[in-house]
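sry for the spam today, last one i promise. struct tokens for design, 300 residues
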């Protein structure tokens, strides 16, 4: 019987576009993209994260899952751009149909709003559209993707959201320190965590940091000191912290090769780091500066 890894999610942004500060090869070919999906499935991954804004990643994911014969067994979460209450319902349904057709599936496990402005604009019309989408049987779970812990807190108050997706890593720790994971559990929200490697930044050696982004260096020096003191690798530190502090959250990662998929899954399943390292991470590496923890603000 094939094993299934619980609460591990493969992100597919890398399959449809050039993604990540460490990406030197660009997006993979269709053949290699399918191999990445196959490696995830064979490693027990059943959850896949994609978006209409990720180039042609939805198409590649759909092709790969259908070639494997598992399209109806996979749990796919996609994201829809724009503001829901500024779009009429028929356009929303057409957008969902576009994603479902690209995936060659019958429905979506999850659909997230990809713009946190929806938290400000959400009203009764928005809730009615979401209710109708559920009734159509096109989407099992509805939610929103946020970029700040303040928005994650706001999202807790919306009964129409089942899923909240948020970043979380050794730099961007506020989601844990502000008690958001506990709040989500109390309110029966499903949490998906992304950016555990911060687009690869947290795995980089200091000498490889581009000149325009040297402002990362002082934090990475602190990371290296913790790794040396506790004899832990960079990837183990990043994964171990998230896994320890995330509770029952689903942990999302991306990969550029099948080997990276297998290595990361094994690490997520087995890694443990000492309590002393956890405390050092929270004392030395917590960052609130958006220029550091928000890739959209990085100097390019």
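last one done:
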């Amino acid at each position: 019987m094939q094993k299934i890894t619980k609460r591990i999610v493969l992100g597919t942004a890398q399959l449809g576009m050039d993604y990540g500060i460490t990406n030197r090869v660009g997006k993979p070919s269709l053949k290699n993209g399918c191999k990445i999906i196959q490696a995830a499935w064979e490693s027990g991954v059943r959850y896949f994260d994609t978006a209409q804004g990720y180039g042609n990643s939805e198409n590649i994911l759909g092709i790969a899952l259908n070639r494997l014969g598992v399209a109806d067994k996979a749990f796919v979460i996609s994201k829809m751009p724009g503001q829901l209450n500024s779009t009429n319902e028929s356009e929303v349904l057409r957008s969902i149909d576009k994603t479902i057709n690209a995936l060659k599936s019958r429905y979506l496990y999850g659909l997230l709003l990809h713009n946190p402005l929806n938290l400000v604009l959400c009203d009764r019309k928005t809730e009615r559209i979401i209710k109708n989408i559920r009734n159509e049987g096109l989407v099992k779970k509805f939610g929103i993707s946020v970029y700040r812990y303040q928005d994650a807190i706001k999202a807790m108050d919306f009964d129409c959201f089942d899923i909240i997706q948020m970043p979380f890593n050794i730099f961007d720790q506020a989601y844990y320190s502000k008690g958001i994971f506990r709040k989500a559990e109390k309110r029966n929200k499903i949490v998906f965590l992304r950016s555990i490697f911060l687009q690869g930044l947290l795995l980089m050696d200091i000498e490889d940091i581009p000149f325009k982004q040297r402002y990362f260096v002082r934090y990475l020096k602190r990371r290296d000191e913790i790794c040396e003191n506790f004899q832990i690798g960079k990837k183990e530190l990043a994964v171990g912290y998230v896994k320890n502090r995330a509770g029952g959250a689903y942990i999302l990662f991306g990969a550029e090769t099948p080997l990276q998929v297998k290595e990361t899954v094994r690490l997520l399943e087995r890694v443990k780091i000492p309590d002393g390292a956890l405390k050092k991470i929270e004392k030395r590496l917590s960052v609130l500066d958006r220029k550091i923890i928000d890739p959209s603000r990085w100097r390019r």
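The CA atoms of residues 71 and 90 lie 26 Å apart. ok im logging off now
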